[in-house]
Amino acid sequence: MPRNFGSISVDPTVTIYGIPFDVNLFYDTRQEEFKQNINSFGFLFDPDLLKDKIQDEIKRKIEELESNIKETVESEINKRKKAIEKQVTSSLSPALKFFSYFDNLGLGETYPNYTVNTVNGVKMTGADISFNPGLLYLAISGINNQEAIQGTTYSRKMIAGSLGVGGKEESHFHFNIMKASTSTSTGLGFNLKINLKNAPYFIIDYRPNTVSNDASDPASSFKNTSNVFSLTTGLNQNTKIYSNSMNLVFSSISSKSDAGLNDYSIHNFNGSNSISFLKIPLTISGSAGYTRSNAVDAHNSFLFDLSAGYMFIENWNNSFGATYYHEEKTNSKSSLYFNSSYSVSSLLNIDFNLMKDFYREMTFEYGDYDNLIIRAGVSSNF
Asked: How far apart are CA 324 and CA 306, in angstroms?
């Protein structure tokens, strides 16, 4: 046998006019004259491949038919639901129809919910009313928020309201206001939500707020203002091949006082996307974020994450990915990770985790270091 030799084997499948053929090609440099030929070439019709192709086409047509039937049935069901809703609503007595327009109608101790930046589950004694007859939306809540306790706390009056068009859980355009008085706190709100079928959704939220008192002594008087703004948009897509979700968020928070000692602003941008394939058990996700902080020590930070999940066989889930975080003038950290879990049965689970960390810093408070973490476990449920 020669010291140096090589061989090549090629086995592609070629389709000619929809008919599959196997092509077999083998070549070896050890072929010698006056010996049986070991090199070969073949062009073969494969009936099994043709049968598989026919079965795949039949399956695709059946799935397409089932999808069309499902869409038709769902459309008909929704049409009949709307007809039933309209029939029931039109048959209500005037009193029941009027009360059906109320989303909230509470007296006494209530916990109104407007937005996270105005009133959100705060205790109030008085009334909580929201009224939504069609397009119009009107809400008002108040009026006692805190009782006075001599030598401990002051009483606090609070009123909140909302006015706009569209229901709270649907596409809407709302103005919100909140005013409280121990010292005087005034908050306004603007909220716009647009959610249309097969189109990107948009949510815009703006909350300016002012807190002040009317003390005559300049040393005791104060006035603080803050602004909270956020813009959220995204798109959800569902096709016969994949399901995809994309989200983008921009937010800004700022605070100023007449003294100017603790003024700050934080601007943040985040984007994320996740796609799941329907024909194969694969999901790919990624996100990135940037934050700019302006205070006594202004700095930027950046975050990135990319991961993928795959199910090799039933009950065996795997994911792997990488993350990176960097904070200006401070530190940076990157990680690689792999997670695997397998369910032997409904009673036994096996888990394996592997992570490699790289930490670098500019302040040298803890020092640079790398970590390798390996974990494995077995759990059982009874």
From this structure: 9
